[in-house]
Amino acid sequence: MPTLLQFADNFSPVAAGNARFAFANAADAPTLQATLTQVGVKNPKTYTVTAAAGAEASASLTTRTYLVQVVASGSTTVLASEQMGLTDQSVTFTYAAGEATNNSVELINRVVKDAF
Quick check: helix, strand or coil at residue 28? Predict the structure, then answer.
């Protein structure tokens, strides 16, 4: 049965050259991990943001394009994958929605610019 979830979004200032990635687990899924890997650089850095079911977690990252892959904790099965650009001094809210049991988890993104 669908459930309404509420998240306390963080709109605090973001430093120049950075972006905030907020990841919310709104899926019918256990704890999810979003792994962000820099795209188009010689030695890409990787970041991981973990959100329990019904919770949100965030990280401050350098401004650039990332490959975002979402898996259930402890799994190697990719539930969702996409490339996204994190823009300077923005907050990108990414919501995982769908069901992990049938691999239908997708990402819904909302960007708030000028968080300074």
Answer: strand
Give first-to-last CA distance, the chain, whole Å.
39
Asked whether the beta carbons of 38 and 64 are under 8 A apart, the reply is: yes
Taking the CB of residue 21, how many other CB atoms lie within 10 A of it? 23
The domains of the chain are located at: 18-112
Beta strands in the chain (DSSP E): 18-25, 32-38, 46-51, 56-62, 64-72, 78-86, 91-97, 106-112
d(CA 34, CA 56): 11
Instruction: Tell me which fold the domain 18-112 belongs to.
Output: Immunoglobulin-like (2.60.40)
pLDDT tens-place string over residues 20-46 = 999 999 999 999 999 999 999 999 999
